[in-house]
Amino acid sequence: MQKKEAIVSSGYLIRRGKLWRLAVVFAASGVLALSGCASGTDSGEEAAETTTVTAEKVDAIANTVPEPIRQSGKLIIGVNIPYPPNEFKDPSGKIVGFDVDLMNAVASTLGLTPEYRESDFAKIIPSIQGGTYNVGMSSFTDTKERQKSVDFVDYFNVGILWAQRPGAPIDPNNACGKKVSVQATTREETDELPAKSKACTDAGKPPIEILSFDGQDAATNAVVLGQADAMSADLPITTYAIQQSNGKLEAAGEPFDPQPYGWPVQKGSPLAQSLQQALQHLIDTGVYKEIAANWGLEDGMIDKPVINGATS
User: Fold this and answer.
1) Nearest in space to 185 (alpha carbons), one of 141, 153, 236
2) Which of 64, 133, 175, 308 lies 20 to 30 Å (CA to CA) from residue 112?
3) Could you give the C-alpha distances from 51 to 57, 80, 95, in angstroms and in order?
């Protein structure tokens, strides 16, 4: 999102919305301070600016919510922070982002109050299985493997994009022997990079050294500091990191492998149908598009939400 128009490739366009911005902040060492890392206003950050998008309760949809959740009046949501621009904290400590705005609208449609609970990314699905959370909201890629544990309500489509330091080009399709940073348990760590590394060793080349971090901010900083040759993350996340890096990062190659984001719920839970109906209502009324446009993410929008739509 350099200036107004940023990355355009393979049909993907991420635009800087005029309604939001965040200033770049660097520590003396040159580490990239992503928005979720700072909590005070003296850091030099500016609060994210977005218009507030509201949604009204729809009784016919709200009545489909499982009785225990409906009686509680709350939707308990497991989330991992930071993963900007999808979910992160503004300088006041409030959880914000595209996913947050959308989930808030879904909860309103269901007549529920969203309650966000922070968690390690890897613990969200087990916590849903155990009943601690009703739903997960942390840019989960819906995959066949994850569907063995939970059901997904798909709400967005997104590809993968790599980033590198300027002057140190790396080919995502030929990164044998390179160090690549990722957030732990994301599809980039569990699927993409292991497959590419195996292709390297099968060809008699050195493997990719996968550097896994608990948070995306640390994975990004590893590239900025030269600890990794590149990073791999979902397109909105990489694009945002590039924009916030003040020229210390640039795209490596083009976006690839578009897959659906989904909200995980317990296997067989009727909550999946409730979320699906609420999202379809937001799509039909234009609220979904308005929220996506606020964050410059229109190109990942879907027309019809499905349950467990992953093909791989």
Assistant:
1) 141
2) 308
3) 20, 23, 15
Count helices and strands (H / E) in the chain.
10, 12
Strand, coil or helix: 293: helix
Going by C-alpha positions, the residue among 166, 254, 179 that lies closest to residue 210 is 179
Output b/e per residue, 57-94; b: 16+ Cβ within 10 A: ebeebbebbbeebbeeeebbbbbbbbbbbbbbbbbeee
Q: How many CA atoms lie within 13 A of 146 on its CB side?
A: 33
Burial of 241-264, coded b for 16+ CB within 10 Å and e otherwise, reads bbbbbeebbbbbbbbbebbbbbbb
Q: Is the dihedral of CA 63, 69, 72, 75 positive or negative?
A: negative
d(CA 110, CA 162): 37
Q: Tell me the percentage of the chain whose pLDDT exceeds 70.
A: 84
Q: pTM of the entire structure? A: 0.75
Cα–Cα nearest to 24, from 52, 1, 54, 55: 1
Mean pLDDT (the chain, rounded): 85
The per-residue pLDDT for range 88-116, each reduced to its tens digit, is 999 999 999 999 999 999 999 999 999 99
SS3 for 217-229, per residue?
HHHHHHHHCCCCC
Across the chain, the runs of DSSP E, i.e. the strands, are 5-9, 12-15, 74-79, 88-89, 95-96, 113-118, 135-136, 150-164, 179-183, 209-213, 230-234, 250-266
For 179-218, how does the pLDDT look when each residue is reduced to its tens digit (9 = 90+)?
999 999 899 999 999 999 999 999 999 999 999 999 899 9
Question: Does the structure show a pLDDT above 70 at 18?
Answer: no
